[in-house]
Amino acid sequence: MDKVRAAIRQVATQRQAQTQRLGADVTRASARLAEASGTGEAVGVKAASKSRLAEELAVAANVPLVVDAVVRSCQLESARRTGWPVTRWLVRFRPDPLRRLNLRREGANPELYRTSLPPAGGPERARTDAAVREFADAASDGAPGPWRGRDPWSRA
């Protein structure tokens, strides 16, 4: 048992040291990046490009589907708890939309199970890529040197 404890202790110590080194590297890199980029908001970033990027990322992450499932689940739950007795009985036979998406599990660690949400398809990825490119172009407009966006299709 002592050898096992010592081995576990050694692995934990090594892992902690690696985490501290990575944290220091990230802190150093972020300080250099902040120094190079200056302060303030990028000149070309507009509210429209921010909102389009947020909207496309939300669609790719199935946020509208989850919001709809939450709304329908709340409606079912309210009918189960406060509805007329006949409707309470009938609503019991309807499946919970959150359970169908595997988003409502009682007493389970959420990191240990997968949801039934569909992955982003080709159209969603293409729209997200276009929104990211548009946002990057707007953010790098007028920026000096390496901060300027470059057309990936050009042969420069």
Q: Quick check: average pLDDT?
A: 80
Oligomer: single chain
Largest sheet: none
Topology as H/E string? HHHHHH
Low-confidence stretches: none
The end-to-end span amounts to 63 Å
Cα shape: flat
Structural category is: mainly alpha
Helical proportion, percent range? 55-70%
Assess the beta-strand content as a share of residues: under 5%
* Radius of gyration over C-alpha positions, nearest whole angstrom: 25 Å
Total DSSP helices: 6
Number of strands: 0
In short:
This protein has 156 residues and is mostly helical.
Characterise the protein shown here.
- The chain is mainly α and 156 residues long.
- The chain is 64% helix and 0% strand.
- Helix 2 packs antiparallel against helix 6.
- 4% of the residues are buried.
- The mean pLDDT is 80.
